[in-house]
Structures are given as C-alpha cells and as structure tokens.
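Q&A log
Question type: sequence-to-structure
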Amino acid sequence: MMKKLNFIYLGLLAFSAISCSKKAEVAYIDKDRKAIVSTDGQAFKKVLVQGAGKDVTYQGFSFDTQNSIIYFGRVNPGFLVSEGFGLNKNYVLKLVPGKKYTVYIYTDPKDAAAYPIHFKTDYNNNIITETGDNN
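Response status: OK
Response body:
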C-alpha cells in the first residue's frame, strides 16, 4: 500500500512540475518597431498595458492578421481601446521616458489568467526589455 501511495505522490509531483513550467511565449516587445507582437501571428483578443499611471485595454474586434501587432505611439485599427471609461478607436498610447510597463496578453478575453511581459523605457524613450535582447 505504501509503495502505491509513493508512486501516486511522485506522479502528482511530476505532473505539477510539468504544468508549472514556463508558459510558451505568446507575444514579445519589438524594440525597433515599438510594438507588441504576437509570436504565432494570431490576432490579439485582449491586451492590458499598465505603466506610467495608466491602465490601457486593447479589445480586438477584428481578428485578422493586422491585429497581431499593437504599436505604441500610433492608432491601431481593429481595436477598441479604453483608458478608464469609454472606448476609443483612435486612441494612441504614448510611452513615457523612464517608466516601467507590464503588458498582459489574454488569449481568452473572459479568462482571468494572462501572459505578462515586462519592459521599461530609458530617458531617451527607447524600450528596454527584461532580457536585454532585441525582441
């Protein structure tokens, strides 16, 4: 009986370790284009950008490939954007120099779980990703 319990315990432990391993990357920050880019080319459904005292939500209403990228500093067609109350199709999120940001990618807009991406801007308003790579 004890061997059976140990086997079950080890099986659950292995399953837990596998399920808690790093999630697959769903998006990244492109420093050159100043944009959030979908890694698989799929359109974003819901994206929340927090930083510089703002919470900005991008809600995709068009699910074609043009919605697989969200640019900072310009209008993003195919998204309804809200900062606080109200929706805006022509919203432009301008990054602020010297601030930290977190982007939350929701693969299912009704889901509470999101894929986070952290980055910051330097004092010249260049994007610096957490890993220091060029993505």
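Response note: The CA atoms of residues 75 and 91 lie 6 Å apart.
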